[in-house]
Amino acid sequence: MLQNIGLTEIIIILLVLIIIFGSKRISELAGQAGEVTKELKKAKKEVEEAKKEFGGEKKEEKELEKESETEKKKTEEIKETKETEEKGGVET
Q1: What's the mean per-residue pLDDT of the chain?
Q2: Which residues contact 24 (CB under 8 A, 6 or more apart)?
Q3: Which positions ≥6 away from 66 have C-beta within 8 Å?
Q4: Suppose 25 and one of 21, 44, 51, 85 were both cysteines; which one would form an S-S bond, judging by CB atoms 3.0 to 4.6 Å apart?
Q5: What is the rounded distance in angstroms from the CA atom of residue 84 to the CA atom of residue 92?
Q6: What is the DSSP letter of 30?
Q7: How far apart are CA 84 and CA 74, in angstroms?
């Protein structure tokens, strides 16, 4: 839709805006639009950083879960070894 707008149409739109709002008001609006754009970029950056942090926490949680599972397996193996040793000692 906006791809078909030519230079003439843009000039006409700008002239209409100047007539409606005046040159002073247009410069204020442009400044406000710049500030809004700056704030949106800042917010986008903060969201991306938060996503990275949250993703990192998920990885850490998975690593901790794997470590705890490994520790559980080791504990079970130790218990089984002790049980087999006790059974072997009782039989002899």
Answers
A1: 81
A2: none
A3: none
A4: 21
A5: 13
A6: H
A7: 15
